[in-house]
Design brief:
With 963 residues, the protein is mostly beta strands. The protein has a domain of 637 residues: Beta Barrel (Maltoporin, Chain A), CATH 2.40.170. The protein is built from 15 helices and 51 strands. The strands form ten sheets. The protein has a 22-stranded antiparallel β-barrel. Strands 1-2-7-8-5-6 form a six-stranded mixed β-sheet. The chain has a five-stranded antiparallel β-sheet with strand order 15-14-13-22-19. It starts with 5 loop residues before the first strand and ends with a strand.
Length: 963
C-alpha cells in the first residue's frame, strides 16, 4: 500500500502478536511502547521516497509542511553546495539532523548545518521529524526540532536500486506580467541577449543507482550491510524557461500592467560613467549615451536554475552480539560530492576608476566624449571614469565545489543487569572542501590591461613598458569584438578555497527500568524508567583562501575573505525520566509524565536545557499530550569565526537616490556628497547592493521556549483511521542573526536611529552602496528574537475494499499532513515601530522565502490485487503577499503570489518476487511557478525554488531487484 508521512506509531515485534515491542523513538533515549513521545513526530517512509521519485533526500523532506530549505540544488548565486533543512523556517542551525539517533557533523566550512547530500536515499528506511523541540535530549541546537534518518539494517543478499528521471516543460507562460511578450519586445533590438527558449524542452536528467549487500552471521547474532552508490543531475539554465529567460526588473510605473526585463549596468558592451552626469556605452568604435534599453545586461539566462552535481557514496553498517552484555555496532559512511554553481559572467564591476587619454585603443570620438583635450592626450592625462563591462567572451562565473565527507561510529551496548542497559559510542565526522572559482577577473590585471600606451604604433600595456607586469595584454573594451583570447587568458584567474570541518563525539548513556525494584505507580502496568549519561563534543573549522581571494583581487567577489580557524567544545550531562501513571484504569486508559534535563559546559559559559511532558488517554480512542521545553543555544564556530566579506543584497533602491524619500540632511550625514543627493546613479539597475556579512566573536547565547499541546485520535469504531492535531508555540530570544540591510536603511532614514545609521558605510567619492567601498554592515549579532506558532494536522486512513463489498479490488489508503501557521514574527531588537515584523502570508524583503499560512500534502493510494499499486499526491501552498505586516504595495504586479496546487502520480509493479518497477510524474500539469521582482537574494530565476516547483514536469522510472 502506498505509504505517506503520518503520525509515527510504535510497531509490534511480531505482526501476529498483540504485544507492542519497546522501541527507541525520536525525542527520547528511553525505550517505550506507546505513541512516540509527548512531542509530535511525523514519519516519512522509504516508500515515500520511491513514490516521490527523488534522487535528493532534501527534495522529499522539505515537501513536509513543517520544513523549509536554506540551501538546495536551485540555489546558484550564493550556493554553499550543501543541502540543508530548516524546521519551522527558524534556520538550519536550529534544526538538528541525526542518523539513527546520532548527530551529523557540519556540512561545510561555510555552513554548520548538516549536509543532506551525505545521506544515501536508497538506504533510508524512514525519516522521523520531531518539531516540538528536543534540546534536552540531543543538544541545544535542536531548538526547532530534529530530523532523524533511520537507516536500513539486517539486509541479506544483494539489492539493486536504479532510477532515471528528467524534466519536461512546455514554455507557454501566461501568468501575471506577460513576461514572454517583454522578452520578444526586447529581442527586436537586442536579439543576442533577449530570446525565448524552444517551446518544448527536456533537460535536467538525473541518474541514481545504489547496490547494497548484506550478510548475517551463521549464529544469527550479527549482520553486515555494505553499499555503494552513484548519483548525477544535469544542469538547467535559466535561459531554458521562458519565465526566467530575463531577470524581471522593478517597474518604473506606479501601477504597472506588464513585467519589464531588467539588467545590470555592467553591460556586455560596457558602461563608462563618471557618475557626474556623463555615461556612455560602445557602438562600433564610438561612445553613445548609455541607457537601460541599449546597455543593460540580461544576466539571468547564464545562471543555473538547477546546479549540476555528481555524487559517489560508499559505506557499511554492522552489528554483532558478543553476548547479552555486549553488542558491538558500527556505521562507516563516505561521500564524494561535486557541484558547480554558475552565475552571470564576471568583468569590470566598476573596479577601475580612470581612463587615460593617450590610450590608442580609444577612437578620437571616444576621447572627445570623455573631454580629453589635445593637451590631455599629449600628456596622457587620466579622466575619472568608472568602467562596467561583462566578460561575455569568457562565459559565466563557475564556483566548482567538491566535498569529501567521512563519518564513523563505533560502540558497544548491552545489558548491565536486570532492568539496566548501557550504550557507549564514539563518532568522528570530517568534511573536506576543495573549491575553485573560475572565469573571474583580476582587479590588478584589469587596471594594467586598461592602462594602454602606443609603442611604435602598437597598443601596449604601460606595465609592460615599465616592467611592472611584462605579461600584460591590452583589454580592448572600446571596440565591438575587440577583446582577444590573449587578453582573457591574462585577465582571468582562478580563486582557490580549501577548508575542513571535523566533529568528535563521545557518548555514554544508561537506561534503567525501575519497575524491577517495584518503583511504579499503583495504577500502572510498568515501572518508572530513567536514562542518564554524559557526552563530550568538539567541533573544529578551518577555512583557507588563496592570495587572490584574501587580497580582494577578484573583480566579482566583493571584499576579501580572510583565513579562519576555530573550535568549540562542550561537555554535557543529561538525564530523562518517564513515569507511567496509569494503565487500563476506569478513569484512564493510559497516563504518563516525562522530563529531561541537560547541563552543558562550554569553554566560556554553561547552559541548562530542560523539558517536561505529559500525556493522558481517557480511552483507547483519544490521547491528549503536551510538552514544554527550554533551550539555550551557544553560537557555533561559523557564527563566531566565519570570515567577514562583502556579498550582494537586494534593497529595492537607495533611499538617497532619485526614487528615494530620505532628506538631504539624512543622506549627507551618512556619507552621500551633497552633489550626489537624489542621483539616479545611486540605484543599481539589478537591485544588487553591497553588504558585509560574517562572524562575530562577541555573540551571546540565544534562548528558546517551546510549548506543544495536541490530541491523537485512533477511534475503535473506525479501524484503520488515526489522526493527530498539535498546537505549537516557539519563542526565541536573543537570536543570533544578521540584521537585514533593508531594516537598517529603514531604521536610519525613516526612524532616525543613530545605531542603524552607523551601520551604513558609503563610498566617500560618490555615496554609493554598490560601487567601490560602499556597503551596509550585516554581520552576525544578537537580535530581539523570533516567535512562531500554529497547528499541525496529520491524518491517515486505510481500508480493505472487501469491507466495502468489493473483495476483488484490493485496498485504499488516504493520508494528509498539513500545517497552519498562526504567527512567524521577528523582532530586530532596535525598539522602533518597525522592529516587529509578521511574516505569515508574506514573502520577499524582509521576510525572505514565501511563508504560506497553510501548506499540505494529501496522498491517495490504491493497492490493487494485480501486483500493482497506484498513488496520487496533491501538494498545496496558500497565497502570499509581498513585504510584511508593516505594509505591502497593492500596486505591485507581484503583490500576491497566488496559491499553488501540484499533482503527482506514480505506479509500482511487482514484476516478480524479487523485481519491481516504478514510473511516476510529479507536477503532472506542468504548472509554472509564481514570479516576482523582489530584491530578496534568496530567490533564483524570478521565483523561489526552495518552495515552488520551478522546472516543470518531472518524470521518472526506477527498478529494484533483490537476489
Amino acid at each position: 500500500m502506498a505509504a505517506f508521512a503520518a503520525p509515527a506509531f510504535a510497531q509490534s515485534a511480531d505482526p501476529q502478536s498483540d504485544e507492542v515491542a519497546e522501541v527507541v523513538v525520536t525525542g527520547s533515549r528511553i525505550p517505550q511502547a506507546n505513541l512516540v513521545t509527548t512531542s509530535p513526530v511525523t514519519q516519512v517512509t522509504s516508500e515515500d521516497i520511491k513514490v516521490a521519485g527523488v534522487t535528493r533526500v532534501e527534495d522529499l523532506v522539505t515537501q513536509l509542511p513543517q520544513a523549509f530549505t536554506s540551501q538546495n540544488s536551485t540555489v546558484s548565486n550564493g550556493a554553499s553546495g550543501t543541502a540543508t533543512v530548516s524546521l519551522r523556517n527558524l534556520g538550519s542551525d536550529r534544526t538538528l539532523v541525526l542518523i539513527d539517533g546520532r548527530r551529523m557533523g557540519y556540512g561545510s566550512p561555510a555552513d554548520t548545518a548538516a549536509d543532506l547530500n551525505q545521506i544515501p536515499g536508497q538506504l533510508v528506511d524512514r525519516v522521523e521529524v520531531l518539531t516540538g523541540g528536543a534540546s534536552a535530549v540531543y543538544g541545544s541546537d535542536a531548538i526547532a526540532g530534529v530530523v532523524n534518518f533511520i537507516m536500513k539494517k539486517d539486509l541479506e543478499g544483494i539489492q539493486i536500486n536504479a532510477q532515471y528521471g528528467m524534466y519536461q516543460h512546455h514554455n507557454d507562460y501566461d501568468g501575471i506580467g506577460n513576461v514572454r511578450a517583454e522578452i520578444e519586445r526586447r529581442g527586436l533590438t537586442n536579439p543576442a541577449e533577449f530570446k525565448l527558449p524552444e517551446d518544448d524542452v527536456s533537460d535536467g536528467e538525473s541518474r541514481d543507482i545504489t547496490i547494497s549487500m548484506g550478510v548475517s552471521s551463521p549464529d544469527g547474532k550479527g549482520n553486515i550491510l555494505a553499499y555503494a552508490g552513484y548519483r548525477s543531475n544535469n544542469p538547467i539554465l535559466q535561459r531554458d524557461r521562458d519565465y526566467s529567460a530575463c531577470t524581471i526588473a522593478v517597474p518604473a510605473a506606479t501601477a504597472p500592467s506588464t513585467y519589464t526585463c531588467g539588467g545590470s549596468g555592467t553591460s556586455a558592451t560596457g558602461q563608462f560613467n563618471d557618475f557626474l552626469g556623463h555615461n556612455y556605452t560602445v557602438s562600433g568604435n564610438t561612445f553613445v549615451p548609455f541607457s537601460t534599453a541599449n546597455g543593460a545586461y540580461n544576466f539571468g539566462p547564464a545562471n543555473y536554475y538547477q546546479r549540476p552535481d555528481e555524487r559517489y557514496t560508499l559505506g557499511a553498517f554492522g552489528h554483532y552480539e558478543i553476548n547479552e552484555h555486549a553488542e558491538a555496532f558500527t556505521q562507516l559512511m563516505f561521500n564524494d560530492y561535486q557541484s558547480v554553481a554558475q552565475i552571470a559572467p564576471s568583468g569590470d564591476f566598476f573596479n577601475t576608476s580612470t581612463l587615460n587619454c593617450g590610450n590608442p585603443l580609444m577612437s578620437a570620438q571616444q576621447k572627445a566624449a570623455i573631454e580629453c583635450s589635445a593637451a590631455d592626450i599629449a600628456a596622457d592625462n587620466t579622466k575619472p571614469y568608472y568602467v562596467g563591462r561583462r566578460n561575455v567572451e569568457g562565459g559565466g562565473r563557475q564556483d566548482s565545489l567538491t566535498f569529501e565527507s567521512y563519518r564513523a561510529v563505533v560502540g558497544l551496548r548491552g545489558l548491565i543487569t536486570d532492568g539496566w542497559n548501557y550504550d557507549i559510542a564514539a563518532q568522528f565526522s570530517k568534511v573536506r572542501l576543495a573549491r575553485t572559482y573560475l572565469n573571474e577577473f583580476s582587479i590588478r590585471r584589469l587596471n594594467n590591461a586598461l592602462d594602454v600606451v602606443s609603442v611604435g604604433g602598437v597598443a601596449t600595456c604601460r606595465s609592460v613598458v615599465n616592467g611592472t607586469d611584462p605579461n600584460c595584454v591590452p583589454y580592448n573594451v572600446f571596440s565591438a569584438g575587440g577583446v582577444t583570447q590573449a587578453a582573457l587568458d591574462y585577465l582571468q584567474v582562478p580563486l582557490v578555497n580549501t577548508g575542513t570541518t571535523t566533529q568528535q563525539v563521545v557518548t555514554a548513556a544508561v537506561t534503567g527500568d525501575l519497575g524491577v525494584y517495584n518503583i511504579q505507580s499503583p495504577w500502572a502496568a510498568s515501572g518508572v524508567k530513567v536514562a542518564f549519561g554524559a557526552e563530550y563534543r568538539r567541533d573544529y573549522l578551518e577555512n583557507t583562501f588563496d592570495i587572490t581571494f584574501t587580497s580582494g583581487d577578484g573583480a566579482g567577489q566583493g571584499s576579501a575573505p580572510q583565513n579562519i580557524a576555530g573550535d568549540a567544545d562542550v561537555t554535557d550531562v543529561f538525564g530523562e525520566i518517564q513515569v507511567p501513571l496509569a494503565d487500563d484504569q476506569p478513569w484512564a486508559y493510559s497516563a504518563s509524565i516525562d522530563a529531561a534535563f541537560r547541563h552543558s559546559e562550554y569553554s566560556n559559559l554553561s547552559t541548562d536545557t530542560y523539558k517536561f511532558g505529559a500525556d493522558y488517554a481517557p480511552t483507547q480512542d483519544v490521547r491528549l499530550r503536551a510538552s514544554f521545553s527550554h533551550a539555550v543555544r551557544a553560537p557555533n564556530v561559523v557564527e563566531l569565526f566565519s570570515a567577514q566579506s562583502i556579498g550582494l543584497v537586494g534593497l529595492g533602491g537607495d533611499p538617497c537616490s532619485s526614487t528615494g524619500t530620505a532628506t538631504l540632511a539624512q543622506c549627507t550625514a551618512t556619507g552621500v556628497p551633497a552633489a550626489n543627493y537624489k542621483s539616479a546613479g545611486l540605484n543599481n539597475a539589478a537591485d544588487q547592493y553591497n553588504a558585509l556579512f560574517g562572524g562575530n566573536p562577541n555573540l551571546t547565547p540565544e534562548e528558546a521556549d517551546t510549548f506543544t499541546a495536541g490530541v491523537v485520535f485512533t477511534p475503535s469504531f473506525l479501524p484503520g483511521f488515526n489522526a493527530s492535531v498539535d498546537y505549537f508555540d516557539i519563542t526565541l530570544d536573543n537570536a543570533v542573526s544578521a540584521l537585514d540591510p533593508t531594516t537598517t536603511l529603514d531604521s536610519c532614514y525613516n526612524d532616525n536611529l543613530a545605531s542603524a545609521c552607523a551601520l551604513i558605510h558609503r563610498n566617500p567619492a560618490n555615496g554609493s552602496l554598490w560601487i567601490g567601498s560602499g556597503y551596509v554592515e550585516a554581520t552576525n549579532i544578537n537580535i530581539g528574537g523570533v516567535k512562531t506558532s500554529g497547528v499541525d494536522l496529520n491524518a491517515s486512513y486505510g481500508v480493505d475494499l472487501a469491507d466495502w463489498g468489493a473483495p476483488s479490488y484490493g485496498s485504499l489508503s488516504l493520508a494528509l499532513v498539513g500545517t497552519w501557521v498562526e504567527k512567524l514574527e521577528s523582532d530586530d531588537g532596535l525598539g522602533q515601530s518597525s522592529s516587529v515584523v509578521e511574516c505569515v502570508g508574506y514573502y520577499g524583503v524582509p521576510c525572505g522565502v514565501p511563508n504560506p499560512e497553510w501548506r499540505h500534502r494529501v496522498r491517495l493510494g490504491w493497492n490493487t490485487p494485480w501486483n500493482v499499486s497506484v498513488a496520487g499526491t496533491w501538494r498545496y501552498y496558500s497565497s502570499v503577499e509581498y513585504g510584511s505586516s508593516l505594509g505591502t504595495s497593492p500596486t505591485r504586479l507581484d503583490h500576491e503570489l497566488e496559491e499553488q496546487n501540484y499533482f503527482d502520480l506514480s505506479a509500482d509493479w511487482q514484476i516478480t518476487d524479487t523485481v519491481s518497477g516504478r514510473v511516476g510524474v510529479n507536477n503532472v500539469f506542468d504548472r509554472d511557478p509564481p514570479l516576482t521582482y523582489s530584491g530578496d537574494t534568496s530567490k533564483n530565476g524570478n521565483t523561489y525554488g526552495q518552495i515552488y516547483d520551478t522546472l516543470g514536469r518531472f518524470m521518472f522510472v526506477s527498478v529494484s531487484a533483490s537476489f
